Amino acid sequence: MKKLITSTFIAFVCVQSFAQTSVAPSVQVEKIDQEMIGKIRAEGLERSKVMDIVFHLTDANGPRLTNSPGYTRAANWAVAELKKMGLSNAGLEAWGDFGKGWDLKKSYVAMSAPYYKPLIAYPKTWTRGTGGAQQAEVILVDAKDSAELVNNYTGKLKGKIVLVYREETYKQSFKTDATRYTDKDLDSMAAIKLPPQQQAPDTAAQRRQRENFMRQQGNQIGNRVRDMAEKEGALAILSMNPRGHDGTIFVQGTQYRPITGYNLSSPEGITDIMLALEDYMMLCRLAKSGIPVKLDVDVQTAFNAADAKAYNVIAEIPGTDPKLKNEIVMLGAHLDSWQGATGATDNAAGSAVMMEAIRILKALNVKPKRTIRIALWSGEEQGLLGSRGYVKNHFADPANMQLKPEHEKLSGYFNIDNGTGKVRGIYLQGNEKVKDIFAAWFEPFKDLGAGTITVSNTGGTDHQAFDAVGLPGFQFIQDPIEYDTRTHHTNMDSYDHLIPADLKQIATIVAAFVYNTAQRDEKLPRKDLPKPRPAGGF
């Protein structure tokens, strides 16, 4: 039997109709089915399957670069698992053209002179291999500008392994890698009053800006060296990210892969190998001192040009209410990853908790009024491509804001993509109309450390695709743990860095939010529709 939540939990909210209509706002008392929330908590916290799901997405399937065999394995496993749970219409849905797939078949990198030492190294994505095992001399390029580079190194790079000289001083950190938000941190988020457009980007947006800068412009002389090395026929080039330390490598893609897609006709970039800071600087010191340095390298890669299209995983629990079953509640996370590890915190964790949230609801045999649809996105790491393609195909193109029929039917989208840390609250993305609604929904989970609500925007992940066309899209606030310091886009992003209790908590809260959204008499209120963005859409 359904019960109304006590007065502590009740929030009166003003639910406005769509911005494109002039219908007067209606008022709805937030009704919470306490009995069902209790069942969701019990199933999610006491009978969780989330670690089994995440094991299959990581250890069992490996890295999940979009259009790679690893992504295909994981996506097909997810579809089969969702079908096993009893979801309908489970399958792979193409969102558009992505381009060549890429797979790392073998990687061996070691110093063979002046003595033998294995190196911590990972090739960047979309680079070619070395054509078998090779031994080559390291040439240190120490040039301050293009003129010095051309004058001193032209004609000297063929067959060599190119090392750009850098002066990096390792700085010990006296702070812990892993942290949780303090009450003061959360209070500061909740106190934000600035309009979203005036806020500084949060860490997720800053992360993507920093990565794009480093990939495209961060080291101009390094980019010129790479171009020369490619032209002259160097065997490989070595790279290093100063953010990494203690053997942690921040490794992603080569600059030769355009952000919008690797065309089937695009050339394969020079073998570009990312080294740990400690190994890179050792090679710099040796070469700078005049000691000859040689490396043994054997990198084998494979490009797949059979299918340029990329695919999202989609499945749903059909709605049952005669009037509301055609409306949709969505939850999602990106399934793709980079190649340096198995992408556990970025973002097998998010995909696993979303699958677990769906499993919780199916295990409880819920009969939602609205259809609940899960989406696991591809191409997120290259610019939210999978979710943006889906939104463009189903809801609207932000370049012209011509709304499709499904745009009216979506109530809300919920996203997870900030590591293994538990939910502490939610970003409203500037939509203050949902504040009281979400406050009521968080009340049953205050004992689990969740409840902070901030009007602030958060960027860098898939809810932005929905927000860009005026749909309610939300990312939960998560404890950072060691996401930026150790696991995000690194060789350390593995299963062992996940926190089971946190993932159980996330899945439980997400399941409750999705259930509540599916059961509301009204859809979630929306912000005003944004204006078209013809310059680039999203």
Question: Care to describe what's here?
Answer:
By secondary structure, the chain is of the alpha/beta class. The protein folds into two domains: 12-98 and 308-519, Zn peptidases (Aminopeptidase), CATH 3.40.630; 101-304, Glucose Oxidase, domain 1 (3-Layer(bba) Sandwich). It is built from 14 helices and 18 strands. The protein has helices spanning 34-46, 50-57, 69-85, 146-153, 183-190, 203-216, 220-232, 277-288, 344-363, 385-394, 435-442, 463-467, 483-487, 500-519, and strands at 12-15, 26-29, 88-97, 101-113, 117-118, 121-123, 134-141, 161-164, 236-240, 272-275, 294-304, 309-317, 328-334, 371-377, 410-415, 423-427, 452-454, 473-478. The chain has an eight-stranded mixed sheet, with helices on both faces. An eight-stranded mixed sheet has the order 5-4-11-7-8-9-10-6, sandwiched between helices. Strands 1-2 form a two-stranded antiparallel ribbon. Strand 7, helix 4 (146-153) and strand 8 (161-164) form a beta-alpha-beta unit. Helix 9 (344-363) packs across helix 14 (500-519). Mean pLDDT is 89; it is low at 1-26 and 256-261.
